[in-house]
Fold each of these.
Amino acid sequence: MALIGAFVLQLLQMLLVLTLAPGLVGLVRKVKARLLRRRGPAILQPYRDFARLLRKETVLADNASWLFRVAPYLIFAAIWVAAALTPTFATGLLFSWSGDIIAIIALLGSARFFLALAGMDIGTSFGGLGSSREMMIASLAEPAMLMIVFSLALIAGSTALSTMAEYMASPEVGLRVSLGLALIALVIVALAENARIPVDNPATHLELTMVHEAMVLEYSGRHLALIELAAALKLLLYISLIGCLFLPVGLASANAGVAALLWGLVAYFVKLGIGGALLGLFEVSIAKMRVFRVPQFLGAALILGLLATLLRFVSASF
Amino acid sequence: MYLELALAGITGFLVIALAGAALSRRREATPIVYGASLLLSLLVLAATLSDLLLRAAPASIVLPLGLPWIGAHFRLDALAAFFLIVVSLGGATSSLYALGYGRHEEVPHRVLPFYPLFLAAMTLVVLADDAFSFLLCWEVMSLSSWALVMAHHREADNTRAGYVYLVMASFGTLALLLAFGLLAGPEGIYGFAQIRTASHGPAMAALVLCLALLGAGSKAGLVPLHVWLPLAHPAAPSHVSGLMSGVMTKVAVYAFIRIVFDLLNAPSWWASMIVLALAAATALLGVLYALMQHDLKRLLAYHTVENIGIIFIGLGLALGFRAASMNGAAALALIAALFHVFNHSLFKSLLFFGSGAVLTATGQRDMEKLGGLIHKMPLACFAFLVGCVAISALPPLNGFVSEWLTFQAILLSPALPQWGLKILIPGVGAVLALSAALAAACFVKAFGVTFLGRARSNAVTQAGEADRWSLAAMFTLAALCLLAGILPGFVIDALTPLAQALVGGRMPPQAHIAWLAIVPVSESRSSYDGLLVFLFIAVSAVLTASAIHRLASRRLRRGPAWDCGFPVPSPMAQYSATSFAQPIRRVFGTVFFAARERVVMSPPGDLRAASLAVSLRDLIWDEVYAPIARGISFAADQLNGLQFLTIRRYLSIVFVLLVILLLVLALWL
């Protein structure tokens, strides 16, 4: 009986992230529009876009290979699994131990690998441009992320996200220098990984600085719908990750009662709202960077993460 | 019993080598040699696999060969058994591959005699139990692989590759000879059993470790001794490239482990700093070099350098932990390194086989002339893709597991007492993370430019699928990559007695953990379940696909590429290998390769095409090897004057030297 309950909870989380992800994108767009004194599309617009894309026919380029058609499903599945392993409203779900935070990052890496390959499949210059720049950005963002993970894992004494989140929620944590450094670095990495301003611009298409949009340029119909949904899921994943590590308020334990779980759910909604609003605010208040300034931006995250880890190696009290 | 079986296999290899030499100009020699090699490799594989899995006690034998009255000692223990599995698995798959690939060989008489000899020598190095047999087999291994590198000696650059390889191999053997000389001590013991029981002072241990690092490192490809590797590995026929990169570098790793972990008693902790620093430099430089290449086989060879770096990071960590008596952590680091040895032998062979299939189909190794091969050779392309995902350390395949274990070992290192290691290891961790991310970029480039996009030359349009033997070998390796990735617990359990013997610690047993997860230290600390992750991805991808196909519109139309409305018909407008690497070249290349880009724009009104010239320098070659080469030729030029003297002058030189020598002797005594 307990097993069934745990299974239902895990399934609930998988469906929850899937349903909330487009709403989060809608929220960020709405906040940005309101800050620019526009009305903006409704928060539900991404759901409508998704439904519309599903109804449309799919146009494939003449020389698209099987990889191009399989990639959206693989990308979506890898990111979905990664999002399902990240604690949202509760820790210690049934399968949460099957991948730790390093595995989650690597799963996102797998998704990126196939997305970059799909960008090169048609043989257009824009696709190659997007893939090439994406891999350059990832080659700095991924080590930065791993360094952040190292520092946090050394604080919590574990790389299992549930254990880390539980430790972060406990009063033992306190204020630490390395935590502050890791938070700044994590925000930088999250911006880069989700192709947000100042690294990339999710709102433009015909611009030479684009990265993510250039890779998916040839996708249409149901394939595009899946890729957009996967991108939304990834944004949700990063906000959940920052939420569960740095704002673990209200995070329920999986075997807690219904009340605690409901409270965790409410807290999660609030966290997503805050995260989305802050992201919107940040995006309207900063300009897009030139591509070749991005390495410096991400290099800062890498060095901050390394510094945080080094501090933990030097003394357990930092 | 297993040792005798392995030795019988080696005898078989030597017989086939002779048969290959006798028959080599006959048409049927190719299937005979490769078929027999395949069977014998499988025999050795079965023997050693059962030895390792049944945890047989170490067996040794003295054969009346080699030096008279002394004989040659051979021994099969857990370490040797593990490396023999790597060697014979590599030998079996490359023989299987060569059954198809070897038919396209233009000069079989230059390959067939040396191929079984090479396999026999690698097997014997791993089995050798005295310094003399070890060095002898090591030299046979070097020379037979050199002969294979020189098989196509008429092609441009191959003679240079062979020359550089020969010099570096001699240097490596010299370093190993000195290491064994030191280990022999004043009593002149040369059997491994006696060396093991002798005691070594800390200074001598450090010296032996450095010599082993030079000797084994020059064969494995540690920076800055890697220079021969990207020249020689691609020059050989592809199945031999796979063996050299996937297996022979591992035999070098074996030599290092045997000397440093088994024969020496515990070197001091700062020795691990040397290993870690060199390993980190190797990992980063190897992948950066690989990213700058546009020759597919050379890219793969440079990437071997990176993986050797990762393996040595694990070994360095194990040394550090062992010096601090953290035996459990040492076992974890050592198992991570050995797991990567196994993984790399699988996917690097697979990738070289794939590059061989491309070479056979198109006659091209240059990626700038390939592209779109996914349409021409879908099966070979799929196997190559599996290899690319595995080598990029992406879950759920095997490369990720060994890197994950290495990361877990790094996370245990704050407990080390020494400050030097505490400062160094976070940096090593960052370099490891950086090189893993760059590896993914490297293989997006390798796969994307070679197999995806549009054909860049006519060579591609005539290409066809690889033959069945080659495909069988590639799919065997791809399946093993997947199996080792989703069932890593069994590999770890098989390696545990080995780690127990070498560092005295062990990892918790893995096979009984629910859902076949792996737990390196304790459940609350970290766990990873490759099987579940694989199942989750597969199930959710299938569920999504079926849901989408049920709910969404199933209409599909083929049309011209969109490309933002400006499609360029010429395939040369695609991203090429060089342009793909351009952002990374700009970020890292200016430091590591002194990369310069020069754009020449013609003035307005002038219709000449603009041009872009990229210059890269190999700083290690220019700054380390070139001065040595210049010094040697300078000395040779100076000595040249001595060649044409009169007899009177020669006699006076002899006389003066004799006097000096006698004076020195008189002062000495």
Note: Residues 2-35 of chain A form the longest helix (34 residues).
Amino acid sequence: MELFHDVKIDWLGKKWYFLGFSLIFSIAGLLSLFFWHHLPLDVDFRGGTVVRVKFAQKPDLDRIRAAANHAGLQDVRIAQYGPAANDEVLITLSRSATSEAAIDQGRAAIVSTLSQNYATGGAENQGKLDLDNASREGLAQWLEQKDPEHMGDTSDAEVRYQQQADAVLHYRDDLHSGILPSIDELHGLVDPAVLSALQQGAYVSGFSVRSVEIVGAQVGQQLQKQAILATLYSLLGMLVYLWFRFELIYGVAAVVACFHDTLITVGAFSLMNMEISLTVIAAILTLVGYSMNDTIVVFDRIRENLRLSRREPLADVVNRSINQTLSRTVLTSGLTFLTVLSLFLFGGEVLRPFSFALVIGILIGTYSSIAIAAPMLVAYQDWRSQRGRGAALPAAKKARV
Amino acid sequence: MQKNLKAKTIAIIAVLIIFVYGIFGIPHGISGAALKQALAKNINLGLDLKGGTHLVLQVQVDEAVGSATDSDAGAIQTDLQQNGITGVTVTKPDPARPDVIQISGVPADKVSDVSSVLNSRYSARYGISSGVNNTWTLTMKNTTEQDLKQAALDKAIEVINQRINSLGVAEAVVEPYQLGSYQILVELPGVDDPGRVRDVIQSTARLETHEVLGGPWPDKQTAMQSLGGVLPPDAELMQSLPGASNEGSSAEWYELKKIPIWGGTDIRDAQPGHNPNTNEPEVDFFLTNAAGDKFAQFTSANIGKYMAIVLDNRVREVATIKGEIHDQGNIAGGGITEQYAKDLSMLLRTGALPASIRYLQESTIGPSLGADSIHQGVIASIAGMLAVMIFMLVYYRGAGINADLALFLNLVILLGFMGFAGARLTLPGIAGVILTIGMGVDSNVLIFERIREELRAGKSPAAAVDQGFSHALTTIIDTHVTTIVSAIILFLFGTGPVKGFAVTLSFGLFANFFTSVFVSRVIFDANLSRKLHGEPISI
């Protein structure tokens, strides 16, 4: 099977369309960055407290909000997280409400608000163990204390109750995403004595804290600085490598193309109002490498063709090189896109921003190596010949290492 | 050619076996459960998949500098007195500059004596400058200050490590956090309620004994009034816990000598115990030999005076010195519970933190989220991999099998690497695996397209394969190097999960280079060798 046989597209003739396309997206992104959503930052960078909670039933956001306000939580933001069917809520406290002296305060306040106002059962559960939020250690200790099997304070008892706790938590966490439908369902999974102890002394609150992220101001700023530095260093690293392998102008063209990709990807996050986290930065850095790959493949071909036919106008050589590598470019980008898409679709909420960056970036990165990097080489040569300097694009360095 | 091919095939199978071993080790059986267990044992999961807590702590290293200059200030005072220079005030004038000591009130005839004492004893650690009115300013040298701060960080890591171990958290990680200065990264797998750990980490547990100079007073104001409004430079005011002087006494203020008789580093051992008379829980501690001698000397010389046992800047107990005390003491009363006695004696055993700790970041992943993430990651990987494999088969037919075999081997090598290196698989790391699958085909596609081109140009299959591989090699090297550059930068700048991504990405690239350039070539050659000369290949 073959999709691209002997293509003869005049890519450079369409450079004004490309320029227009890139400008529209870059400017839209920039406008959003400066005047609309600005740069939405994740808690990693912004600082603050984020608690992710899963509920057994569809959560009533207004009710949670009212409870939080009633409990005196300042600057609290409550939003549905992921698809509605997941019944998950993200409760966010701003950085100013997250004090470094007592970093855990916000989390504790949120959890106690939820258990007072949202837990099923209400007052009758006073003093009982909340099985939906019990930790492994906590549950094991609770069982040891109750000692339903009358084993005494022995190391056998410790092991025994640890196993029982593990069985409960395996059922809760691995099979039911952290929420026990009811204690009765543990029938057959734990000893009857343990089961009846749980039925008497424990309850399921119907919500479970899935993750908590608390970031003080200092770390946020530190990470922001690091992220910007990392992106710049990686662009610089690419420039130096391409300079060493090709010529400076190739490096400059490739880095401009990568910068263009980064800008559009970040712009897309701003337009969609999606938060940029540490993993998104990782995705962007990967894209820098990936976009560079595509560009290098085209450049390698240009260099090879330049050595074979020195008389041909540069624009023709570039066109031909793009066409010759088009099949490869489209195939690999398409395949990588397939994998990234499966990540976007099946990889879950935590990875969604990361895979979103990759989905956008791979499309743009492939486009930019054809539409930005290669035309820049030609533009550079035109500019030089206008100024009366040597016309030929340097292809002097040998292709083989 | 044939023999060479055989050797290469054996090499590939050997690599396969080695890396499969890396993934599974030697499983107890070949049932699904046994394999799963073996896999879980060999592939380390990161906190975001396993569940657990990740903390970033700031060590307030300035405090360590401050306590070093405190004790030097005391030493200077003693030195000057021993050299017959009296009436001198040694102070630390600026609280924001813990590294500066000032000496003032030197009699005019002693100027040269002071100068010689300072220069002979303190010039190695301090920059010494004299000012107007016979004053001196000692500023701690930069290298000394850096060493002190580094030592404080190292000590803090050691202490926190011991404390966490004693809590029984398995596989905890305590290490310097490279992204900040004097910060510590703590990873606690399986801990989803970090409250108790936090209390244990954060308590400084600095136990000291000070000479009591005055007091008690009911509040700070009264204390200052009775001291005439000025606190002597070598003294400090400190609040006590209720019941420090006798049963039922309330919280009071004492004037204590600033420099302790002995301090946190002088404790050799501490154990929870019980008061023999009341059977109430208490903590018994024992001093090191040197500190014990010092303590004995002090107590025998100061019988009838008072001393205070101070824990974390609060007076816990005030006692009359009744006789020589050598190397042991206890902390009792004040409502000590069994648990507190156990925790406190552990803290004293592991030693005091050299400086206090501030929490910068705390992130907790519950176990259910980790389990879901693994589930979703695996599904996404399988879906991505299947899509790629099917496409390659359809598009390249015979050669597609090549690519798929190479891809599979790629995955085995990548995971095997992770197993051998003990690297952590994180959620972004799984994404890295998926991405490597996508990028892994890149090299194959490059080569295959090139071979097709050569075939179209009329070359024989053998020559086309040969040319295809050698032409594509340059490009493959270039593309790999650029991605490795990205990965290295990610590794250097990233934290936990991102680092995991960088690791899988780099391992994946190496594996990919091997499979696409070497393995795929061998399969081609094996194919060609079975065909007649000039018979077409399936690509």
Note: The mean pLDDT of chain B is 82.
